Each structure stands twice: as C-alpha cells, then as structure tokens.
Amino acid sequence: xxxxxxxxxxxxxxxxxxxxxxxIYYGFHAxxxxxxxxxxxxxxxxxxxVLTGELAMKPGKKLFxxxxxxxxxxxxxxxxxxxxxxxxxxxxxxxxPGLKDTLFGFINAAKNDNLVFVVQDSDGQxxxxxxxxxxxxxxxxxxxxxxxxETAARKGISMEFTYxxxxxxxxxxxxxxxxxxxx
Amino acid sequence: MWTQYFNFxxxxxxxxxxxxxxEIDFSADNICIEICKxxxxxxxxxxxxxxxxxxxFYGIIPETPLSKQEQTSKKKKF
Lengths: 183, 78
Prior knowledge:
Order of helices and strands of chain B: EEEHEHH
Number of domains of chain B: 1
Number of strands of chain A: 12
Oligomer: heterodimer
Shape of chain A: globular
Radius of gyration of chain A: 18 Å
Largest sheet of chain B: 2 strands, antiparallel
Distance between the termini of chain A: 37 Å
Largest sheet of chain A: 5 strands, antiparallel
Order of helices and strands of chain A: EEEEEEHEEEEEE
Number of helices of chain B: 3
Shape of chain B: elongated
Number of helices of chain A: 1
C-alpha cells in the first residue's frame, strides 16, 4: 500500500531550470512495439511516478529528433475532470524555425495520425507522451504558423501536441534513434 | 575497443539517447568502456557482455566445453 512521506524542497545541486532541451523526439504510435509500464501498487510516492522498462520500437522502426528554438518549448500539465473523475492532459508546445519541405511533410503526415513523443526538460528529466492505449496528437499552432508580417518577424511553425493520461509519470529509459532489429 | 567487451543488441548500431550521458552513437568504435560498463550495470537493455567482458570486469571464466572423448571417459568413471 502506498505510504505518504514528507515532501521536502529537494533540488539536487540547486538545479531547477525551466524549459526544454532543444531537441524533442517523435515517432508514430503504431511503430511502438512495447511501452514502459506504469507502477502498480507502488509503495512510495516516488515509485508511484516512474515508468519501468523501455520504449521499444518494432523491427525497422525508430524515433526521430526535431530541433526546436530555445525558449519556445514547453511541457505543460493540465488537470482536468470533475470530482471523482480527475485526470490530466499534457501539452507540448514548440517552435521550429523555417518553412521547409520536411516540416510541411511532417505536419501533413502527423496532423491526423497518432504519435508518440519523448521530451526532456533542462534538468534532463524525460516525459513520455503516449501509452499503449492513447497517443499524442497534433492540436494546432498556438503561436503562429507562417512567414510572419514584418521582415524582423520569425518565419516558422509553432506546434502543439496533447496527450491524455490518467496519471503523471517520469520516463527514465532510453530513446532509440536507430532501427530496432527483428527478434 | 568497447566492442571487445560488449555486444550491442536489439538495435542496429547507431544513436541512442541514454540516461545521464545523452546521445551516444554506438556505431563508433571509440566509446569509453567505463560508460558502457556503467550503462550495463544500470540495466541498459542494448548492451550485453562478451565472454571477454565477463572475464575482464567480473572475473567470470567461461567453462571450456569438454571434447566428446573427455565426456565419454568422465561418464565411464562413474
């Protein structure tokens, strides 16, 4: 049974920097072979928030990285639901500079498909958006998507992805950027 | 070279974002052996020890398989 403990300040090395690293990792939800597992009957608060195992891809599949402009990436957690029906929606918002064919191609493919993301905050902690039952999905472009009006404007694509989850977890595992082998 | 002591398994040799050390390109031959050992000991799923690695790091000496003649004579003694 879960035992409560004191929750102290606990900032190792005094670190608590905001924002995300300048790379996010993405793939198709359908390309995932096995998902890390959520804790069951965790004994401690910490164990109650950490996934176990690795995100493993199907043979021939892998995750990919996307560059994001510094200070534009945010992983935000939104509590939702009525009393006795609480859950969370996580929001990933990023900006990628430029209006290149690769980005248009990504948006064309991703906009109506099921996705998976792993994002890393500035302290190296990772968050997985997607699980066996639910994907991350493209939710729109909250900060603009285009050339901008002025010459001093920043041309590029802002993107928001959302993922609905019953609980919040940290993903401590690896991110495979190379193809999985059969067997 | 790290590949003397570890096999890279389940993935094609290439880039993986690993805990603590960030992105490592396992297609390179010059990865620090200490990093590989640390990853292995922390349960990194994509490295396994070679026989040399088992011997070098943990003193595990593989059993030499007996020849057929030796197996037969061993059986006869009992």
